Amino acid sequence: MSGITADRSGVAGAYWAAMDARRLTFQRCRACGAAQLPPREECTTCLSPDLTWEQASGAARLISWVVYHRAYHEDFAAELPYVVAVVELAEGPRLISNIPGDGAGLEIDMPLRLVWGERFGQVLPWFEGVG
Amino acid sequence: MSLSGQYVIAGIGATEFGKLPGRSTISMNVEAIRAALADAGVEKDRVDAVLVKPPTSDFQMHYVMKLASALGIQPKLGGGWDQAGAANITLISMACMAIEARQCEVAVVSYADNPRTGSAAVFSRPRGDDALYGWFGTLPGYAMIMQRHIGEYGTPPEAFAAIAMAARKHGAANPRAQVRNPLSLDDYLAAPPLVAPLRRDDCALVSDGGGAVVVMSAAMAARLKVPAPVPILGWGGGQTFFDVAQRPVLTETMAKVSGPMALKMAGLAPGEVDCVQIYDCFTIAALMTLEDYGFCAKGQAAAFVRDGALEVGGALPFNTSGGLLSETGMPGMQLVHEAVRQMRGSSVNQVRGARNVVVSNQGGVMQTHSTLVLGQ
Hints:
With 131 residues, chain A is mainly β. Chain A has one helix at residues 12-20; strands at residues 25-29, 35-36, 51-55, 59-68, 82-89, 94-98, 111-119, 122-129. Chain A folds into 2 domains: 7-55, no CATH class; 57-131, CATH 2.40.50. In chain A, the strands form 2 sheets. Chain A has a 5-stranded antiparallel beta sheet, with no helix packed on it. A 3-stranded antiparallel beta sheet of chain A has the order 2-1-3. The model of chain A has no long low-confidence stretch (mean pLDDT 96). In chain B, 33% of the residues lie in helices and 17% in strands. Chain B contains 12 helices and 11 strands. In chain B, the strands form 2 sheets. In chain B, strands 3-2-4-7-1-8-11-10-9 form a 9-stranded mixed beta sheet, sandwiched between helices. Chain B is globular. At the A-B interface, strand 4, strand 5 and strand 6 of A face helix 4 and strand 5 of B.
């Protein structure tokens, strides 16, 4: 079993609890309306602590990606080569994620959709190309 | 009144670069400072400010107190600055401002680290919860930015190779350089990707070593009869968001803020710059810095760097001692040293007629940036 787990302390607890139920969520500021990830105690736009959760539609686009040909941690050695991507949700927030496969056929700004994955016993939001 | 030209780098000093087994970072800092003071012709007892970038591979509290103790100095101003690879130039600028405010008179700015024979684990650490996605390491952050640049602007491998080839050509002529074999385009293209699109020769060396400078006013340098003071014409800085994913535009660095700030203070336009020492931890960082400094338009670096433009004799000689790709992986101080040598006319790859030089430092995964302009 890997020692890599989600940090569920503080405000991130609700984010990961939703993930366990296969709901990808982000924060919406009630004061200014800004949407954000990763979860924080305050809004990075207006600094208000009055934040609520919304569920992401799963539509996204590919900002960029890399293909690991070298494992930085032994638990990823068997997955090489693997793709880590910066994904922008249709609602605006961005997150680090995975795109299953070896990266062939990817293009920046291509549309993506949410697909659920699992690693180290944790449900994770992965993405794949649309079409 | 502008501070441009009112302060100088009075002396430079460094250890050897490469593998230095058994040397502590404190000892390497002391050696570098001893050499820098000797170069300036200044006695240790004159030093009343000790400003240090703590070792990247062994960041610790109270480091500068320990170093000042090893130096036998009780400074008026002492401390470490946590700004990753942008710290050395920032500390030089902070020394100038502290001296201007009459808080001190003679400052040493120093850095040493031993990730090559010690631990380089800091460069491979997991990125918080994103470790669940396999997002580890410093190098992949640069690869993520590089991929976006390639996608937006069609930047070809030859552009990144041109940067590495210029650094390696200059390093080959530098007897102090850690890697002295030149690089061909075929060599560059033949190396398999580590984390695509980054290849082996896009990446900085991992090196032990230390480097220091002595900073004082031009008036003090004249009074102390410093043999070869080099005037500081300008400086600037900038910082962006920690997570690569959260930056609105991945293909811009804070060089776009830091560079114009420093050039404005120096009274120079990009086209008037004679020589550059650009932080080349990865070729993409140097390429984007050239764009953001305004040497060419955003996305046009591929056309700018080709045909040996960055080599001595070309349009904009770059990293004339080999930089992080060839001389030493040290985060930035070696670039300041080489800029000083260019202004003194003592570089092994001297740019004939160079009257000014621009130096960039940047750190983390392009979060921080600092710029220094030196003259004659």
